[in-house]
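Researcher: Let's do a round of design. I'm pasting the C-alpha cells now; please hold your answer until I've finished.
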C-alpha cells in the first residue's frame, strides 16, 4: 500500500477500509508520510503550530495528522517564506501528514469587508488592513508553496443563516471554483514544494437536501480522490447538521476519504463517526483548554470552579497525559487562576489526548462489531 496511486494523473492516497459497523467505518489512509488510522481527529495548528503543544507531545497524545490554515499562513509569514524555511513539515517540526484548508472559511467569515464574485473574494487582511484577492488559483499556489500532503479546493462557505438562494449561489461557485482548482493542480502535476499533494473537493449546500445532492453530483464529475463536507457547524441546528452529514456521506463513494470540517466536541465526534465520517478537525479542544476547561467522560470540567481548589484527583482517571499522570485538579486550577502557561499546556495535552483516545476506542469498537454498544454506553454530556 506504500506505492503511489494516481486518479486522472493526480496523486491519490488510498483508503483501505477494514470494517464497517452500520454506517461507521474503520480503515487506514495510506500516505507517503505514513499510515493514518481512521476515523481520525486532526488537531488544528492554525498558524503553523498547535497552540501550547510541542510536536513530540502531539505524537504522544495520539495525533496522526495535523491541520494548518492557508489564509493565516499566506498572510503571516507568507507561504513562500514557509517554503524557503523548509516547507510546512520542517516549519512545524512534524514528520507525519499535514492537511491545509484553502482559507475559504476564514475569508468568508470576514463578511463585513469581503467582496464575493465569480472570480474570487476580495478582502482586507486582519493583520494590517492590506487588500487581498483569493481565487481558486491563488488557493492552490499558496498550498503548493506550503507543501502539505492534503490540500483543499477553494469553496464558498455560506453562514448558517443564509437563504436557500444564497446557498444555491454558493453551490454554483463552489463547483466552478473546484474545476479551476483541479486545473491549477494539474498544471503542477499534483506536486507541492515538499512532495505529492492529494486534492479534496468540498461539498456545500447548507441543510438543503436538493442542494447537497446537486453539489455531490457536480463534484463527483470532477473525480477528486477525496471529499470534504463543508458548510456545516456554522450556526445551524445540531440535529439538522447530523441529518445532513448522514445524507451527504451516503452520497459519497465508499472507497474515498470523507472529511467533515469543524467538529471537535466529544459527543459530536462520536455522532459523525456513526454517520460514516473518517476525518474531522476543530479548534475546540485547544481553545477550551485556554479557557481553563478539560474534557472528561462526564462532560466539561471547569477548573475555575472553587470546588476543585483542594482536589487531589486527576482530571480523568486512567488518562495517560502529562496532566493526569502528575498533577492534581487543585494544582492545575492554581495554574489556571494564575494564568500560568503550564496550565494551558497541561489542559491542551489532556483535551487532545482525551479526544484521540475516544476516537481510538470508537475505531476498536467498529473493528470488533460493537460500535452501537460503545456509542450507547457513553455519557458525554456537552
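Researcher: That's everything. Go ahead.
Model: Designed sequence:
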Amino acid at each position: 500500500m506504500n506505492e503511489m496511486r494516481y486518479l486522472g494523473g493526480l496523486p491519490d492516497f488510498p483508503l483501505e477500509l477494514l470494517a464497517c459497523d452500520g454506517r461507521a467505518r474503520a480503515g487506514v489512509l495510506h500516505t507517503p508520510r505514513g499510515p493514518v488510522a481512521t476515523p481520525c481527529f486532526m488537531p488544528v495548528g492554525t498558524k503553523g503550530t498547535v497552540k501550547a503543544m510541542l510536536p513530540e507531545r502531539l505524537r504522544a497524545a495520539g495525533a496522526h495528522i495535523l491541520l494548518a490554515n492557508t489564509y493565516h499562513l499566506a498572510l503571516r509569514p507568507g507561504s513562500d517564506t514557509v517554503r524557503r524555511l523548509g516547507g510546512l513539515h520542517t516549519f512545524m517540526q512534524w514528520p507525519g501528514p499535514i492537511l491545509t484548508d484553502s482559507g475559504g472559511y476564514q475569508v468568508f467569515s470576514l463578511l463585513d469587508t469581503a467582496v464575493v464574485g465569480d472570480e474570487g473574494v476580495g478582502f482586507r487582511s486582519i493583520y494590517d488592513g492590506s487588500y487581498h484577492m483569493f481565487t481558486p488559483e491563488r488557493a492552490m499556489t499558496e498550498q503548493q508553496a506550503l507543501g502539505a500532503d492534503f490540500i483543499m479546493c477553494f469553496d464558498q462557505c455560506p453562514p448558517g443563516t443564509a437563504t436557500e438562494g444564497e446557498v444555491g449561489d454558493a453551490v454554483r461557485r463552489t463547483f466552478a471554483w473546484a474545476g479551476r482548482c483541479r486545473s491549477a493542480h494539474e498544471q503542477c502535476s499534483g506536486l507541492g514544494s515538499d512532495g505529492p499533494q492529494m486534492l479534496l473537493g468540498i461539498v456545500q449546500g447548507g441543510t438543503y437536501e436538493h442542494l447537497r445532492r446537486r453539489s455531490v453530483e457536480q463534484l463527483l464529475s470532477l473525480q477528486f480522490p477525496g471529499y470534504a463536507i463543508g458548510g456545516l457547524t456554522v450556526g445551524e441546528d445540531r440535529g439538522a447538521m447530523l441529518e445532513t452529514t448522514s445524507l451527504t456521506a451516503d452520497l459519497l463513494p465508499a472507497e474515498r476519504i470523507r472529511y467533515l470540517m469543524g467538529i471537535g466536541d466529544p459527543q459530536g465526534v462520536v455522532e459523525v463517526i456513526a454517520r460514516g465520517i473518517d476525518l474531522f478537525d476543530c479548534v475546540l479542544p485547544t481553545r477550551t483548554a485556554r479557557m481553563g476547561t478539560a474534557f472528561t467522560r462526564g462532560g466539561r470540567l471547569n477548573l475555575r470552579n472553587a470546588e476543585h481548589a483542594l482536589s487531589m484527583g486527576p482530571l480523568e482517571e486512567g488518562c495517560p497525559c502529562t496532566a493526569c499522570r502528575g498533577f492534581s485538579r487543585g494544582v492545575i486550577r492554581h495554574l489556571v487562576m494564575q494564568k500560568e502557561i503550564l496550565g494551558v499546556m497541561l489542559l491542551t495535552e489532556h483535551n487532545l489526548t482525551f479526544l484521540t483516545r475516544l476516537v481510538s476506542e470508537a475505531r476498536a469498537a467498529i473493528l470488533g462489531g460493537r460500535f452501537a454498544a460503545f456509542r450507547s454506553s457513553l455519557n458525554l454530556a456537552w
